[in-house]
């Protein structure tokens, strides 16, 4: 049975099977520790019955709590290659969405490479829509754009947060 549990510092020493995959964006240790210290409820791991890390999700709360921009943000979600196609990413996403509901967010957002058709299709299947295209979002690849995908939460009764923008934006235009 797969268990979702809070990410712990020692997990940083045991998640290479997830992080060394070419589809996974990796960060420095200080970045992970910053998220763990600031938004621990948004940083979770999937663990197998044998204790192997199968995947993780890292996110945060963003925006102004008093405005309709208050939301949960998915910084990274990844599942080890040997555990893909089992619905584990959907389980992680659902968990982060639930946390964002508890925090009274209006929506959850994430950025995904336009070229990552598998991920885009998965997010659409989970109820996310392309809110806007961000031109040249990825600094290591200036030709790679990102989709800013969003899913409205129950607090956004009119679903205003997911009405797509007609024109693409640049990274510096993102709030």
UniProtKB/TrEMBL annotation:
Record keywords, A-Z: Acyltransferase, Cytoplasm, Nucleus, Transferase
Subcellular location: Cytoplasm; Nucleus
Gene Ontology terms, MF aspect: protein N-terminal-methionine acetyltransferase activity; protein-N-terminal amino-acid acetyltransferase activity
Region (Disordered): 156-175
Enzyme class: transferase
Keyword NADP: no
Role description: Catalytic subunit of the NatB complex which catalyzes acetylation of the N-terminal methionine residues of peptides beginning with Met-Asp, Met-Glu, Met-Asn and Met-Gln. Proteins with cell cycle functions are overrepresented in the pool of NatB substrates. Required for maintaining the structure and function of actomyosin fibers and for proper cellular migration.
Protein name: N-alpha-acetyltransferase 20
Protein's organism: Nematostella vectensis
